[in-house]
Amino acid sequence: MATERTAYEYLAEPFDITRAAVVGIDAHGLIERWSKGAQALLGYRAGEVLGRSAASLLAGGADLASAVSEPWRAGNSWEGLVAARHRAGHRVELALRTCPLQDAGGRRSWLAVVSEVSSLRRWELHQAVLHGLLGQSPIGIAVVDTELRYQLVNRVLERMDGVAAQQRVGRRVGQAVPGEAESTLEWQARQALDSGQTLLTFQHAVPEPGELLRGDRERVRLCASFRLQDRTSRVLGVCHTAVDVTDQDRARRRLALVNEASSRIGTTLDLDRTVRELAEIVVPQVADFVAVDLLETVLAARELAPVAVDGATVLRRAAHLSIQEDQPEVVVTAGDPTRYPPASPQSLCLDAGRSIRDPVIDESTAWLAQDPLRTAKLRVLGVHSHLVVPLQARGVTMGVATLLRWKSPEPFDDDDQLLVEELAARAAVCIENARRFTREHNTALALQHSLLPHGLPEQSAVEAAYRYIPADTEAGVGGDWFDVIPLSGARVALVVGDVVGHGIHAAATMGRLRTAVQTLADLDLSPDELLARLDDLVIRLADEADAADDTQVIGGTCVYAVYDPISRKLTVARAGHPSPAIAHLSEPVEFPDIPAGPPLGLGGLPFECAEIDVEEGSVIAFYTDGLIEASDRDVDVGFERLCFALAHPDRPLDEICNTMVRMLLPEHPRDDVAFLVARTRALSTDDVASWDVPAVPSAVHTIRQMANRQLAAWNLEDAAFTTELIVSELVTNAIRHASQPISLRLIRERTLICEVSDSSNTSPHLRRPLSTDEGGRGLFLVAQVAQRWGTRYTPQGKTIWAEQPLPPQDA
Questions:
Q1: Where are the alpha helices (DSSP H) in 372-461?
Q2: Strand ranges for 478-583 from DSSP E
Q3: Residue 557 in contact with residue 517, Cβ under 8 Å?
């Protein structure tokens, strides 16, 4: 079986007489010599052909001269193609080379060397490949012998190194070219000789300083060294090849840098961070220093318009970065305004909206004369190349990026400019997105802050403190809110809520719900009834959003509590909100079991109240879920940390709030957090007086007298007249129109409060009586002399109350 030919087999020269068919032909065209190679090629033994005409072996029987096709002269011989007939009868295509012979007697003959045409074609192809590699391919080739002396250097390698082949051939590696001994070529050649393996390396060739001025740049080559052997495996030397891959290497590095920029620039919607990310990508990969200057309107996150910008436009330094820690190039500190001369590249870049590149900066650069401070910096550092690229997005120029080179010897070229323009375009879009987000976020935050209470109202029931921590920049502003609402009877309402979502929509919804809670609280509704009314409002808002095809989700959670400093009871109801925590003075922190109502907006399910006795001095903490979920989203850990933060409730409330922030919240919380802490107070029994009122008209006089005596005990005689009027009118109305039991209560707090309670649910109405009416002036008179008045309903009936301001010394 014939062995399979391989692409790397050694091929003998087709007319080598030691291997080819050799035939001797005399002057008459008769065969006089016949080699074993000829016998193997055509099948005839010597005895069968000697003395025969050579033409008889040809296909078609033509004479030898006419049978040779494509003849050409090769020195003193002729070469051509001929077709012969094999002894077995088939046609054989042959390549023929004939050489004339002459003996001592002057007799002429011919020596013919014959080979198969296929062998000739294959050998010619190998020769063409060899010549093409050495002379036409872009591969530099050098061959050294086993003593590492150059034997062959092609022209491509000559051009690569700038060293003629004559200076290398015959000389050792390292001696032919100064400095080459220190390179890796000699080491590679020795390793290839010893190991027989092919060694691959990348070689970086740095141009001389004079070459840099011509625009030459660092060249990158892919070098290979491999051992050369003949067909007997005898080692002949080493072949060294070099391919210039500078352009491919630069393209690869540029692509890698662009890919890195796409993943690193714009990782957040923070404008300052986005600018710093651009600087970190550019230095040191592209430049030795970069400065990013933006318009003031961009940094202030104001609305942008495509207006003309030029050198007179004030820029502000957003970020800069240098390869040196001390940043010797810096002229303007970050955050400060900066101006550039009219003829500077920055001004021209702003004016034209295109990149400006100065490959060489020296004394002849015109604009430097107008900026002596920058000129001094550039000269000291030796800055030689300058590139300014505009930052543009959506047709608006937002600033410029200035790149300098002084340590890197290569000036900026076209490839660098295209790369930086691509990076600047990506960064500009991210900067614009960050600016828009910052603007919307600031608007939402301002709206939310305007809707939150700017201070806590004065009241005597609790001492309160609060914290509101906006979400991190990426999450946006949320809908958390809190409130402290004074109620009648010296009571106070404490409320904390959270609206679904973030942004302006959530802030606006929060404002509507907070207003609704304040309005419903003025009606003195019980916590469960108030949440039911608030739930109805959220459902109506959701229906309105659906009718308007608004995809925003309307919903939220809320906890509403009323604390009475007289009874020291806390009445709480919650709608999908965490239960408040109560830090007792002598017991562990408690999370009372309050019925969990559904979140606002679901509807269909009732809300329930829980009444809790609270000792004076206890601290009650109301909070949104962002507080307890901030601990790596582990609620149990959040509750545990909250207990630690509320321990020792006798501390100042601000200290407790700071401890809660420190123990429960990270530096940048993912969600808005609002919490309200209140230390309970109790109203002394000396400040409260109450009496049961018989349902007889004569009781009015008696109750009035008892009220006067209590005012005298409180040193409030100045309020006796108005108090008598209020007590008389309210008690008289209760006796006439309500049912028993009837009671009167006076409370001395920040105001003087008069309350008349009965078991009727009928609400009195204020009306303006006619001059002919005999009655109906009671509530009208009360409204005139009281600071405010109202009605609240209880499970036992209703209470009508009226407040009067205390005299200045008592207030």
A1: 372-381, 414-451
A2: 478-486, 492-502, 556-564, 569-575, 581-583
A3: no
Contacts 24+ apart (CB under 8 A), 684-690: 687/747, 687/748, 687/749, 688/566, 688/745, 688/746, 688/747, 688/748, 689/745, 689/746, 690/743, 690/744, 690/745, 690/746
Q: Which residue has the tokens 């011509």?
A: 214
3-state SS track over 723-741: HHHHHHHHHHHHHHHCCCC
Cα 787 from Cα 750, distance rounded (Å)? 12
Rounded Cα distance, 552 and 539, in Å: 13
The Cα 54–Cα 30 span in angstroms is 6
- pLDDT tens string 105-128: 888 888 889 988 888 888 888 888
Considering only CA atoms, which of 274, 253, 208, 254 is closest in space to residue 417?
Answer: 254
Token pair, residue 750, equals: 């920040």
Following DSSP, what letter does each residue of 329-345 receive, concatenated?
A: T-SS-TTSEE---TTSH
Which helix (H) or strand (E) element contains residue 695? none
| pLDDT tens-digit series, residues 478-503 | 788 899 999 999 999 999 999 887 77
Residue 30 has which token pair?
A: 């008769």
Q: What is the pLDDT of residues 408-420, one digit of tens each?
A: 778 888 888 888 8
> What pTM did the predictor assign?
0.58
Pairing between β-strand 199-205 and β-strand 150-153 as defined by DSSP bridges:
unpaired
217-256 per-position pLDDT tens digit? 567 778 888 999 888 888 999 999 888 877 666 667 777 7
Amino acid occupying residue 436: R
> What values do phi and psi take at 692, rounded to 5?
-85, 140
Residue in 142, 164, 160 with CA at minimum distance from that of residue 237: 142
- Which of 601, 661, 624, 676 lies closest to 497, judged by CA? 624
Place of tokens 């001025």: 213
